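Our working data are protein records whose layout never changes between entries. An example says more than a description, so a record of this kind follows.
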Amino acid sequence: LRFSVAQFLVALILLLVTEPFVEQMEYGTAIESGLLTLVMLSAVLAIGAGRRTLVWAIVLVIPAVAGRWAHHVAPDQFPLQFAVGAGLVFLLFVVVNLLGFILRAPRVTSEVLCAGVATYLMLGLLWGLAYLLTNRLAPGSFVFTVGPIAKQSMVGFNGLYFSFITLSTVGYGDIVPVSSAARMLAMTEAMTGTIYLAVLISRLVALYSSENTNEQKEKENEDKNQTT
């Protein structure tokens, strides 16, 4: 890869870990937009090993980043729905390319492992934005059963929290999807999280077994050549 997936994974983890604390700061929205921009740009570099993929990544990331900052500067003129929709398209493109990299890998390396973890985290981020967009288009799609009233809105960290809880099929029940669209998204995310882990583990085991088999055959051939 042109840019290390490990570095992209670090940027992604930084965004997810700092999100609940950043949104409480005075300039939290600007910091959050900056971290999300960092994740998107590092994703472009991580998947842009080929010229065609790089061009498509740049084309898709520009409206996502520009829409995010335009909403931050002039929220009345640039609605958040546009930035979120563009971000969803870009994140989906990144996930597809990371999956392709994992499935085409000839052996298990640190880059493959980092790509596997990054893809799982990207799935959570992808659905988090989808929940945010759903709540924007259809207010009241989610009901909060616990917590202060002031924080009962599907924005920022709440979206990420519900997304990863659903992706890991934990389901605490403090946030409940009530609209048909929200329930459909939660259902598909839970299934995707389960299927992804099963496919990833089976793929890594197959690669590792194949690598060991090839090494064993090479060793046997060397031993035969030495005896002859």
In short: The two ends are 42 Å apart (CA to CA).
